[in-house]
Amino acid sequence: MNSTCIVYGSSTGTCQDLASRIATKLGVDSSNVFDAGSISAEQLNGFQNLILGTSTWGAGEMQDDWYEGVKALKAADLTGKTVALFGCGDSEGYSDTFCGGMAELYQAVKDKGANIVGAVATDGYTYDDSEAVVDGKFVGLALDDVNEDDKTDARIDAWVAEIQPAL
């Protein structure tokens, strides 16, 4: 596996925990797991693979730390890099904006020359709408670790198995 980092935005700790769990399953050292509010373009340029995760707030916005993180993404050279996305959401309380924050990350990287991997079928999810669905699939791994925590491990395992060959 090429050099990989995981960058997350987390207010309550859920997305941070999920980032750590994904890192463990991929064998990514904890020193390569970063908070989105503290990353720089130079740091990102040092990795071939970027796994980016955000929780979703309000009407589908990404977590606040990502507003600085997106600046770093836009300044980084993502040409030829592999990017995978994951998002946290509340499929019951915010069913109409489920994991919408992931769509903002997707928009930030999609035209930067990166190879985006890890789209996930919407089958088995319960929600009304999501901006993170493109061509009938989530742009990355959608997780609801509050209402569907019994599905989280299986979803992470299936996603990691799918993206690992590309990393």
UniProtKB/TrEMBL annotation:
SUPFAM superfamilies according to UniProt: Flavoproteins
Cofactors, names only: FMN
Domain Flavodoxin-like, chain residue ranges per copy: 4-164
Transmembrane segments: none
Alphabetical keyword list: Electron transport, Flavoprotein, FMN, Transport
Signal peptide: none
Keyword Flavoprotein: yes
Gene Ontology molecular function, alphabetical: electron transfer activity; FMN binding
Recorded family membership: Belongs to the flavodoxin family.
Role noted for this protein: Low-potential electron donor to a number of redox enzymes.
Protein name as annotated: Flavodoxin
